[in-house]
Amino acid sequence: MKLIQILMMLMLSYSTINAQVFSIAKDWNLLGATEEINNLSVFNSACVEEIFTYTKDKKWKTYPKDKTLTSLKKAQGFWAYAKSACNIDTKSSTTDDGILDITNIILTKKSQNCADYVRKYGSSVKDIKEGKNFTGIFEIYTKDNKCIFKSNSIPNHDFNDNSARFATKVSTQSIEMEITSSPSFASKITYLALGENGIMLNGVKLDILPAGCYGVGDGKIGCHDISTPWRYDPMSPKASFGTDKHNAHTQPSGTYHYHGSPEALFDKSSNIESPIIGFAIDGFPIFGSFFMKNGKVEKATSSYKLKSGERQSINGVNPTGSYDGTFRDDYEYVNGLGDLDECNGMNVNGVYGYYVTDTFPWAINCYKGNAPEAKRPRPKGGSRR
Q1: What's the pTM value of the predicted model, to 2 decimals?
Q2: Which of 154, 316, 325, 354 could be joined to 136 by an S-S link, Cβ 3.0–4.6 Å?
Q3: How far apart are CA 369 and CA 223, in angstroms?
Q4: Is there a domain that residue 187 lies in?
Q5: Which of 290, 269, 285 is closest to 343 using CA atoms?
């Protein structure tokens, strides 16, 4: 019997696999075919009811759903009986050396445990302006209740488009970040500090704060005192930080990094709940922009707004002008104004996470969990009201 005929029989509702009869329930799908599903790691999901292959001797072979299918080769063809709501990725592919190609991938997983993303990843992308090809290398593994993220800082999408004005050329790096796989709430919030605030699931750092403040050097670099007022907001077009369409640019070292939403990694349509796209350094996940509210998918909104009137002096420094978003100090937090708290996060269905937003503070503004910056002074910007 041809494989396609067997598939049709299965999808009609019943089939015998290893002498076991089962019914494909209303909200469950049969996913398969070598050219469609190449990411074996998705079959470790709790969403999957059964995994099986059709062997050369015309017999079905089943696998336990909690087994890592490293021995299953693409050429065999394999099938997953999975709940449709699981949003299993059927577009990524795995190379012979076990590296998952995530070039331009749209993420779907929602597991808040970073350990569930353990594996090696790769991508093939282009620096558009320079006309140079890059290979992204990214790996996640666990050690002592921590997830270790190792990356060369090359994203999984093309970068440096014609809208960008990078001060230095992008170059491969060697970064390593340790993040707890068991985050917990701290007794008080922790404020941002200069340096990485998290990492996206394509190996690129989220680095919110720029080293640029009004009246310090040229305003773009050199402002390393976190208490200095009037720090620029690199996401503001008025600040002219030269970011590309992915809200990223380079550090003097050539490190590509995000200052806000990567404008990639998740589906931006308004009817799809966003997956996890990264992890903050306190271990809590970073989601895309959409969440489920009262049975409806909505875009998360920030609780920060621009202050009204003219800028007032802070510590004797005043760039003058109206509060227009050029500086982080132009904003204030208003409890309950939007969906998100002062850190740009919220709890949805028992899972706390940060959300990327279209407005300030764009991604993360502080940490709810225990973060390495705990002993550092509070940065200026985004005051409370």
Answers
A1: 0.76
A2: 154
A3: 26
A4: yes
A5: 285
Question: Is residue 95 situated within a structural domain?
Answer: no
| 59-76: pLDDT as tens digits | 666 665 554 444 444 444
Neighbouring C-beta atoms of residue 173, cutoff 10 Å: 17
- Residues 60 and 136 grouped into a single domain: no
Tokens 């720029």 belong to which residue? Answer: 210
159 & 37 share domain: no
Q: Judge whether 56 lies within some domain.
A: yes
**Structural domain for 130, as ranges:** 101-384
Q: How far is CA 100 from CA 97, 121, 128, in A?
A: 9, 5, 23
Q: Which residue has the tokens 């993040």?
A: 179
Q: What would the pLDDT profile of 97-155 be if each residue is shown by its tens digit? A: 678 999 999 999 999 999 999 999 999 999 999 999 999 999 999 999 999 999 999 99
Domain boundary among 32, 62, 90: 90
| Same domain membership, residue 300 and residue 197 | yes
Q: Does 96 fall in a domain?
A: no
Q: Are residues 194 and 69 in the same domain?
A: no
80 plus 116 within the same structural domain: no
360 and 334, same domain (yes or no): yes
